[in-house]
Design brief:
The protein has a 6-stranded mixed sheet with strand order 5-2-3-1-4-6, sandwiched between helices. A hairpin with a 2-residue loop joins strand 2 and strand 3. The protein is built from 8 helices and 6 strands. It starts with 13 loop residues before the first helix and ends in a 22-residue tail after the last helix. By secondary structure, the protein is an alpha+beta fold. The radius of gyration is 22 Å and the shape is globular.
Length: 234
């Protein structure tokens, strides 16, 4: 496009467009994980209560949005907040046995999201038929990335539905209390969650924190040589 002087206006790069959208906005990190409920530690209903209490203790209730669904022996959780809050949550569920989660798998964590999908944080306990961990793994032929994307995008569609109801009605309790009938086609199946937990293709919580949160120590080749090489003189 030319300006009034007939000169060609400089074209913006994709990076500049993204930076313009994120200007004066705190970028959102979105975490997506699945886990098995440790019923020896607490009831399934306590999983959501623990997260709510943790948010209150950390004083970040207004900074975190997302949805925690407990389906039979499994749970699926999407969390939206700053990277700092997301990492703090992961550290907390790793060390606090009261979180009542085990076999946690981090399926996806994306940074620099331009906006939130969920209007608030909420949790619901849904009664569904149980599935044995790993029973479907040998029959699964779906590529791991496709399986994660399908479940992840369906959860985001649920978030969009919740946001629409929030804007029009002001309250989302009615929708959350009838999720099984309202968005049954978008809810993950117990079989799929069991596959996520049994498959070695997805990062465990410990592996994720070791890769993305642990301090980085790089051992240089000259540190393994004796005597130590003299430094360069410029």
């Amino acid at each position: 496009m030319a300006d009034d002087g007939g000169n060609e206006a400089p074209r913006l790069s994709l990076l500049e467009v993204i930076q313009d959208k994120l200007q004066n906005k705190e970028p959102i990190t979105r975490l997506f994980l699945v886990a098995k409920v440790n019923e020896l530690g607490a009831s399934r209903a306590d999983v959501g209560a623990w997260v709510r209490n943790w948010l209150k203790k950390e004083q970040i209730e207004k900074d975190v949005t997302g949805l925690l669904l407990t389906l039979g022996p499994f749970c699926v959780h999407i969390l939206e907040s700053s990277t700092r809050n997301i990492v703090s949550y992961l550290r907390a569920i790793q060390v606090d046995k009261d979180a009542s989660l085990e076999d946690v798998k981090v399926l996806c964590c994306t940074e620099q999201n331009p906006h939130r999908v969920f209007p608030t944080w909420a949790s619901r306990l849904l009664s569904v038929q149980g599935a044995s961990l790993g029973t479907e793994l040998e029959h699964d032929t779906t590529p791991p990335a496709d399986a994660v994307w399908t479940t992840y995008s369906n959860m985001l569609k649920i978030g969009n539905r919740i946001s629409t109801v929030k804007q029009s009605l002001g309250s989302i309790d009615g929708l959350l209390n009838t999720l099984k009938s309202q968005v049954s086609d978008l809810l993950p199946t117990n079989e799929q969650l069991a596959i996520f937990l049994a498959s070695p293709n997805y990062l465990t919580l410990a592996d994720y924190l070791d890769v993305y949160d642990a301090p980085v120590h790089i051992l240089l080749e000259n540190e393994l040589v004796w005597p130590v090489q003299a430094g360069l003189t410029y």
